[in-house]
């Protein structure tokens, strides 16, 4: 433990035991606008709105801040609103699987892009600000929502917003690494995160690629963020292990990408001290038998980001846990310009 390290864990009531260690987190990818955090699943109400209780669990687990993902024009507005209410941050952009929205928009793709541009310009400063353009990118596993060609066109157009506003990119890349890096290179992001063309790098979130792909991204000046989906198989773990400390970030992608007992990450989580395990993975109940204050089975929460960091720590033999968590924190603060968290 570093003595000068700020203590960011939740202020425990005098009767409660102190939380061991100094582990603080910025969950850089959380879909907090998802209705499941209000009790709605597939349009059906299953339990009370428990956003507050969920956030309390996150604070207790050392989650100091979050970046709320915006996946479309509409959702980006919601993300910004929630971020300003809660004192977090947001991204503004359009997810590849929703990129048909550009063509369906009244006024067409140029008007949609202009709306994103205006939204960014109006929210560049202060509490709840936009800290990245995205999530944008390519998803070739899900081309039924938007064909690959449509995805490529609207991914490319969003890069202009990142250059114009000197914002990092929040990138989604699924089974599309080759095309993603080709477009990035063609648009001036071939080195130093696109510094020469006004870019400020970015992060490939929910990374599920190979060690070679990770190396190519890092060499171009991009960070790599991992979550439960990045640690499902032994091959995944080998790729996560290959991420160099200066480029790593952690996230949950909540409510998605929970770590489960069938994942390769499981054997590493088995070594997580119980005092931390109870904070990162609190006891759950099914949505049907919801109890206010309890986590919900199957719904991932940002509190679990510590579990992600723990697996990264276990994959990097000899590197203390605090070193991993502080590096991930520092990387996020620097890339996204979260100066108030320095
Ligand atoms: Zn994504």
Automatic annotation (TrEMBL):
Keyword terms of this UniProt record: Hydrolase, Metal-binding, Nuclease
Keyword Metal-binding: yes
Source species, domain of life: Eukaryota
Key word Metal-binding present: yes
Protein's UniProt name: Uncharacterized protein
Entries under Pfam families matching the protein: TatD_DNase
Assigned protein family: Belongs to the metallo-dependent hydrolases superfamily. TatD-type hydrolase family.
Species the sequence originates in: Ganoderma sinense ZZ0214-1
GO cellular component: cytosol
GO molecular-function terms, A-Z: 3'-5'-DNA exonuclease activity; metal ion binding
